[in-house]
TrEMBL record:
<keyword id="KW-0963">Cytoplasm</keyword>
<dbReference type="InterPro" id="IPR016193">
    <property type="entry name" value="Cytidine_deaminase-like"/>
</dbReference>
<dbReference type="GO" id="GO:0016783">
    <property type="term" value="F:sulfurtransferase activity"/>
</dbReference>
<dbReference type="Pfam" id="PF02634">
    <property type="entry name" value="FdhD-NarQ"/>
</dbReference>
<dbReference type="InterPro" id="IPR003786">
    <property type="entry name" value="FdhD"/>
</dbReference>
<dbReference type="GO" id="GO:0006777">
    <property type="term" value="P:Mo-molybdopterin cofactor biosynthetic process"/>
</dbReference>
<protein>
    <recommendedName>
        <fullName>Sulfurtransferase FdhD</fullName>
    </recommendedName>
</protein>
<keyword id="KW-0501">Molybdenum cofactor biosynthesis</keyword>
Length: 162
């Protein structure tokens, strides 16, 4: 691959993201079909069904698919604990897939973070966060962010510093 930068071309090795079709069946019937980056299919399916309102309550069991390496140029979603330790990270060609996969991970692993992060806050996203008693941090930048926190601050002051 050739990369053009600074007025000249440079040869560069670059891994391209993989893309496949994902067919999700509910009760033996097609529910959704979309393009996705292979890996962690159980997390993706559970998260998609949960965030779509098909699944409710606790989910247990399941098996993870294979992992993927970083490719750049695709969407990611990550989960950190309050000390900043990375708990789960994934990439996908679809930003919704990355979030669905993260939600599936949280369901199977029993993780319930006090704060969700989003690129932007929409009315449905804030409503969903309120429904589950979570705070939503949006427009996150190195200098700050907006925190939609129903019921007050979800964590001690200073923990969520940019």
């Amino acid at each position: 691959m050739w990369r053009f930068e600074g007025g000249c071309f440079q040869e560069e090795a670059y891994s391209l993201p993989e893309e496949e079709r994902f067919l999700l069946l509910v009760n033996g019937k097609p529910w959704a079909s979309f393009s996705y980056t292979p890996g962690d299919e159980v997390y993706l399916a559970l998260g998609h069904l949960f965030l779509s309102g098909v699944l409710g309550g606790a989910v247990a069991g399941g098996r993870r698919g294979g992992g993927r390496g970083p490719t750049r140029g695709i969407h990611g979603a990550a989960l950190f604990d309050l000390s900043g330790q990375l708990l789960y990270l994934n990439e996908d060609i679809g930003r919704h897939n990355a979030v669905d996969r993260l939600a599936g991970y949280m369901l199977l692993e029993g993780v319930r973070p006090p704060v969700l992060l989003a690129v932007t806050a929409t009315a449905p996203a804030v409503s969903l966060a309120q429904r589950y008693g979570l705070a939503l941090a949006a427009y996150v930048r190195p200098t700050g962010y907006r925190l939609y926190a129903p019921g007050g601050m979800p964590v001690p002051e200073g923990v969520l510093r940019p």
